[in-house]
Structures are given as structure tokens and as C-alpha cells.
Amino acid sequence: MSIFSGIWIPLITPFADGAVDHAALRALVRRYADADVAGIVALGTTGEPAALDAAEKDAVLATILEAAQDAPLPVVVGVSGNNTASMRERIQELNSLPIAGVLMAAPYYVRPSQAGIVSHFMALADASDKPVVLYDIPQRTGVRLELDTLLTLAGHPRIKAVKDCAGSLDTTLALIRDGRLQVLAGEDLQMFNTLCMGGSGAIAASAHVRTERFVALYRALAAGALDEARRIFHTLVPLIHALFAEPNPAPVKASLALQGLIRDELRLPMTRASGILAQRLAALERA
């Protein structure tokens, strides 16, 4: 089986007084390794990569890889952009690192045709020595990966999985039934549905909190314990709602700060969770 199964954490980037807090970052990786997550996604959307310069991205990735190696824990690296040539260069740099794969979204803002999307991803997959996870998130990129596009891309030998955030039950089910791509839920509330239909796992920002419960949900469904899995999922729904009540990753960072794991800091244009939401998260923490 491909490694792209189970619960993956799209890791936040902690800050302290405006700088990356590498000590907190190491501690988070070890915490999630102890919780038996399947892997870490570094520099995904939740990690605020748009707010990091190139040197900071390299340093964040180095810290995550160092901490994950001790676990050991596989690491997938997010690569974003809308310039195919520069993304190819970045992917070629990543080829020399001990990573499990790369996560790539469609080019944002420029809204290319589906033919352009296919050519873009094929060029990037050709450049990669590592497995590729496609990231279908039209609400951020402005363009979705149509089913025919995904099925075409599934023919590339290094494209192995998709992080599914498109919100289309038909597409999710069609990809699962096709069987060539492992389907990872990217919308946390769709995690239970996706897994029940045969999806392989989830890349879930909300799993930063109560991580063991998310892992238990996955394991219960893998074991066929539907009633137990449903019970676990129902207990997680209020937390998932709260963690996406305001723009990600502010609620996640607020929750982790309440636990004393990080400082509640983001970089503009992202801002901290509101006081009302922080109170709601604190109540959930006590529950």
C-alpha cells in the first residue's frame, strides 16, 4: 500500500516575537509522532508558506525533517505557485532531500484551462523524483481539477494521490472507484464520508488538536467498527466547526496556544482568532 493513507497533519509554523519558533516546531513534530499520525505535510497552506521567505522555508523544512527522522515519520512538502518553470526548479531542489513526496495545488490566480493544468502538473511530475500528491482546492486557486483532468493525471507514474477539497461527492467517489489515486480528504468535515467510501485517509488541519481521536477514528473505520467510528466522529464535529469558524490556521494556533504549545502569533495578512472564538475553543478544551 502507498504511504498516503491514515491521518496526516498539515503542520502549522509557530512564531515567537515575529520569528519562526524552531523549538516549538520540533516539539510539535514529536508530539504528533507520539500520537501515531501517518505523516506530516510541511509548508502546506496551514503552515503559512506565503508569509515565509525562501530561507525561512528551507529552515522550517530542515527542522521538520530533522525531528521527523527521529520518529521516524514521513514528510510531504507543499510546493505552490503559478510559474511552472520556478516550481520545477524548486522540485528539483527537493529531490535531494529525504521526503516522502510533494503536494501541489493548481496554479492560483491565473485560472488556466484544464489542458494548461494537465501540462503544468505533468511537467512538475516529470521533474520530481518523489511521489506527487495533487491538491484540488478551487476556493483558494480559483480553478478546480475536473474529473477528466484528474483521471488523465492519474496515468503519470509519479502522481499517486489527491488531497480532495473540491466538495464534489461525484468526483470523490469516481476517483475512489477508479483506484489509481489514493484519495485523502482535505475538507475535515468530509473525512468520515470519504473514509467510508474507501478513501485512504485525510490531511486534516483540525487533527492538530485531539490528535489521538482522529487517529482512533481512522483505525476504527479501517477495522470495520462503523458504530465506534461514528461515535468518535460525532464527538469531533464541534471541534472541527470551531477550528474552521475563522480563517485557517488562526483557530488552530489559538487552540495550541491555549495548551501552552506555541505562542498565538501569525503574520499579516493573517490575524489571530477573535476573542469570542478563543473563548469557544477554551470551552471545548475543558469539555
From TrEMBL:
Q: What is one Gene Ontology biological process annotated in the Swiss-Prot or TrEMBL record?
A: lysine biosynthetic process via diaminopimelate
What role is this protein assigned? Catalyzes the condensation of (S)-aspartate-beta-semialdehyde [(S)-ASA] and pyruvate to 4-hydroxy-tetrahydrodipicolinate (HTPA).
Residues annotated as binding pyruvate are T46, I203
Name under which the protein is recorded: 4-hydroxy-tetrahydrodipicolinate synthase
PROSITE patterns membership = DHDPS_2
Membrane-spanning parts: none
- Identify the Pfam families for this entry: DHDPS (PF00701)
SUPFAM superfamilies membership = Aldolase
Q: Where in the cell is it found?
A: Cytoplasm
Keyword flag Cell membrane:
no
GO annotation, cellular component aspect? cytoplasm
Q: What class of enzyme is it?
A: lyase
According to UniProt, this protein's pathway is:
Amino-acid biosynthesis; L-lysine biosynthesis via DAP pathway; (S)-tetrahydrodipicolinate from L-aspartate: step 3/4
Which residues lie in coiled coils? none
Q: Recite the lineage of the species.
A: Bacteria, Pseudomonadati, Pseudomonadota, Betaproteobacteria, Burkholderiales
Gene3D superfamilies linked to this entry: Aldolase class I
Keyword list, A-Z: Amino-acid biosynthesis, Cytoplasm, Diaminopimelate biosynthesis, Lyase, Lysine biosynthesis, Schiff base
Q: Name one GO molecular function term.
A: 4-hydroxy-tetrahydrodipicolinate synthase activity
Origin superkingdom: Bacteria
Q: What Enzyme Commission number(s) appear in the record?
A: 4.3.3.7
Q: How is the quaternary structure described?
A: Homotetramer; dimer of dimers.
Check the record and name the NCBIfam families matching this protein. dapA
UniProt site positions, description: Part of a proton relay during catalysis: T45, Y109
Family that this chain belongs to: Belongs to the DapA family.
